[in-house]
Amino acid sequence: MRAFLFVIGIAIVWAQKSPYQLFNSEGKPITYEQMLQQALQSDIVLFGELHNNPIAHWFQRVLTQDLYDHKKVQLILGAEMFERDDQLIIDEYLQGFITERQFCQEAKCWNNFETDYKPLLDFAKRHQLRFIATNVPRRYAQWVFKKGIEGLKQLPKEAHRYFVRLPLEVDTTLQSYRAMLTMGAGHGGSWKIVYAQALKDATMAESILKHWKKGMLFLHFNGAYHSNYHEGIVYYLKKQKPKLKIFVIATVEQDQINALEKEHLEKGDVIICVDSRFPKSY
To answer: Chain centroid to CA 167: how far?
Structure first.
């Protein structure tokens, strides 16, 4: 009996010390099961992470497994962290033609690939799922940052296969883009930093739509800023297919997680609010 009470006590303490809380867009607490059910009813799930947040990466693994349990081969994965010109290398790794070492030598792997993205890629490998490299090669985004959108026309014709079809329209009234302009003030970027961001968002949206088919569920991993407030990637997805059911997960950090702060409301359909004291992965 004493041991039983001890276990119950530990459970209560753990519940009180949970490093995260899930909220809906209005700031009302929800359960993981509610989040999962909403995701399952969607065509596309955009999982907005904070790149160095271990809780977000843990949720990605859990959600991927649970969505697969329901959708099986109808699930398709994709990520901002891999660029379009890495797709052949990803396919060769998934099909067992190259080793992990060869993959890391050839692909542009992020520094936290081993801990945070390799598990997702290996999940796709084990279950024979597609994994799509959705992002524009960074060199082209950097080119736009220097030359503006018009600079894309100067690139070789072969390069155009790696970014969204032109012309690229950018809605400069979007909240996330205007905030980016404010944050970038004084860094010499002007609107070019927004155009570079839009190139990424539009390319990722196009990549998703190219591989998504009706009846499938596309789970996409990206930095939260690319999908917060149903903007960024969502804007370009809806521009092409307005009737898509898109489910957005956002990740935020707060000193206190019992209530969602006003600035984070409506960032996603579900917001993962993480205790800011929780250790970062880098």
So the answer is: 25
